[in-house]
Write a structure and sequence with these properties.
Elements: H1 14-19, H2 31-43, H3 52-85
Helix pairs in contact: 2-3
Membrane topology: Peripheral membrane protein
Keywords: Disulfide bond, Electron transport, Membrane, Mitochondrion, Mitochondrion inner membrane, Respiratory chain, Transport
Subcellular location: Mitochondrion inner membrane; Mitochondrion intermembrane space
Length: about 100
């Protein structure tokens, strides 16, 4: 499934996420990495030194999504700044004394 505005595709399906009880806020383009991470965590009794590879790959995916959104927002802000600065005719003309 293609997600608008993102370069990453959804790999995990809705059915897989429901079957693996992925919470709704975590159902993003990295959910396919969260499913094996949660299975590993449950199998290893949530020991913090276990499942490091799975956790690292999931956190890296989430980091990349955040960075992508930040770049998109920066582009939007730059476009808005360009529109505010130039090209528009002011509705109220500036007077010589103002």
């Amino acid at each position: 499934m293609e997600v608008k505005g993102s370069s990453k595709k959804m790999i995990a399906t809705q059915e897989e996420m429901v079957a693996n009880k992925v919470p709704i806020p975590y159902r993003d383009q990295c959910a396919h990495l969260l499913i094996p991470l949660n299975k590993c965590r449950q199998a290893e009794f949530y020991l913090p030194w276990k499942c490091e590879n799975e956790r690292h790959s999931y956190e890296k995916c989430e980091y990349e999504l955040v960075m992508e959104r930040m770049l998109q927002m920066q582009k939007i802000r730059e476009e808005e700044a360009k529109l505010k600065q130039g090209g528009s005719i002011p509705l109220i003309p500036k007077t010589a004394n103002a």
